[in-house]
Amino acid sequence: MKKFRNILLIAVFAVMLVGMVPTAVNAAGTFYCSTSVTTGGTGTLSDPWACSDATQLDTVINDQICDLYSGGDLYQLFPNSYRYHVVSWYSTTDCRVTATYDYAGYPPSTGVDLATPYVIGIVALVGVGLVAAGYVILRRRKQVAV
Questions:
Q1: Quick check: 51 and 76 in contact, CB under 8 A?
Q2: What confidence score (pLDDT) does residue 24 get?
Q3: What is the pTM of this model?
Q4: Which of 30, 53, 66, 69 could form a disulfide with 95 if both were Cys (CB 3.0 to 4.6 A apart)?
């Protein structure tokens, strides 16, 4: 009975731990546009807006980010670097780029798309497996000692 209680407590703790992690870890208001895309896009990393010239970039900022989303962070992707634009409202009629930074490499959080709850769930399962293996070893030691 005590063994069952310990396993139940571990299972409840694992479920609570997974439940505390939000299912969506990406911040709202993060958008992407690419200089290698010529038309269209939805603003996501997998389907960035087209911003191969200054006119397209202005269209993305004014017609998409300001008008539809009320500001946000825009990552303008180049072949080997990216430019980070902060788009925000100054007043009720003035939305503009408040800061721009150039970086080498790729934007943050653009690596392997593996949801955090899956990672925590895998770690919890490995932990439960290790605890179960410990119980099996303890049980065998008690049988050998008798």
A1: yes
A2: 32
A3: 0.56
A4: 66
Q: Which DSSP symbol is given to 78?
A: -
Whether 66 and 87 have beta carbons less than 8 Å apart is answered as yes
What pLDDT score was predicted for residue 25?
A: 32
Tell me: do 19 and 83 sit in the same domain.
Answer: no
Tell me what pLDDT residue 143 has.
Answer: 84
Query: Which residue from 89, 132, 128, 133 is spatially nearest to 10, judged by alpha carbons?
Result: 128
- Looking at residue 67, the DSSP 8-state letter turns out to be T
Same domain, 103 and 53: yes
Q: Is the dihedral of CA 121, 123, 124, 125 positive or negative?
A: positive
* Torsion region of 96: left, alpha or beta (phi above 0 gives left; psi -120 to 50 gives alpha): beta
Domain enclosing residue 130, as ranges: 1-25+115-146
Q: Are residues 42 and 90 in the same domain?
A: yes
**b/e 97-124 (16+ beta carbons within 10 angstroms → b):** eeeeeeeeeebeeeeeeeeebeebbeeb
Side-chain-side CA neighbours of residue 90 (13 Å): 7
Domain shared by 66 and 80, yes or no: yes
- Which DSSP state fits 93? T
Into how many domains does the chain fold?
2
